[in-house]
């Protein structure tokens, strides 16, 4: 595994990846930048084109580790770019897009043409854009859009830059290598002992991204009521191990230390069984009876990763002896399991998962109140998210046909 640090759309981005990981997967799976599309994965179709140090680059055949310390700009990073803005308007006007799958790569390559070519003919533009394939438009609208933007910019006195600001020799992203001298330490060396091994292990640790820069992909709220006093429920939430045991498929790897805990949660989605291993930090405020759980985890088998932030508030319920718990959930899911991450389905599945959590919570609290020895075993130990998703889809289809035929 290698730790790669890049500047992506003006912000630092770092992740620990396999050496064979190409730049497109690095951006999509670790940075959630899905505007970079993957098509042929052979550098032919151009759908994955982005900018590395200002140069259009096929990200599906570029190793992420080869771009260490490079500046990468994806289509998301061109929101405020003047040329890209003009191209988006021109593509819309000239009907230069249909399905849109090739459009991110088209915009990046077209921007380079507008930047470099002074007064290209239609033939020149077609040659320059020949590395970007489109299966819908026939290219006529695309060529007209590019030619129109070039004509408009030259008319405003904006000259072309023939070299396109290319100042680094060699493959895109390769201009950041640090040369070694005769007295420099060689890149590969034999371990001198345990201290050397420990030092290299410390250096291999991934650089964490600042929490302030992370925003959840999807956020929603849930709430539930339990038939127990608010003080009892709040005290129970203070025991991380007990709370984890109420969540089907979750377990801790050890005792929490200063609010920091390691553990895993097993999720079954049809034939796919994933086990997310990760860490979480837990905070509580006794004055307001609120808390947060911030964590991240990864399943090695499916190469899926998730990061989430859960906030909860415990307050008296509508009746004596009852407690209302409000929960807000924000998460980001990447990798193979992201195909099950549509917010509507996730909310329905999360609702049923919370219902199972409440059943286990009620059973444990009742066990305590009755003064029985030992810990109460959970009522529900595992949920199959695949069957949940199927039931959700079936329920929605049933509602659709009921409304279609005027039935309830």
TrEMBL record:
Q: Which residues form the signal peptide?
A: none
Extract the SUPFAM superfamilies matched here: 2Fe-2S ferredoxin-like, Bet v1-like, CO dehydrogenase ISP C-domain like
Q: What is this protein called?
A: 2Fe-2S iron-sulfur cluster binding domain-containing protein
Q: Does the keyword Iron apply?
A: yes
| Alphabetic keyword roster | 2Fe-2S, Iron, Iron-sulfur, Metal-binding, Oxidoreductase
Segments carrying the region annotation (Disordered) are: 170-215
* Protein species of origin: Borborobacter arsenicus
Which PANTHER family does this chain map to?
A: OXIDOREDUCTASE WITH IRON-SULFUR SUBUNIT (PTHR44379), XANTHINE DEHYDROGENASE IRON-SULFUR-BINDING SUBUNIT XDHC-RELATED (PTHR44379:SF8)
| Domain called 2Fe-2S ferredoxin-type: residue spans | 2-78
Keyword Iron attributed: yes
Q: Name one GO molecular function term.
A: metal ion binding
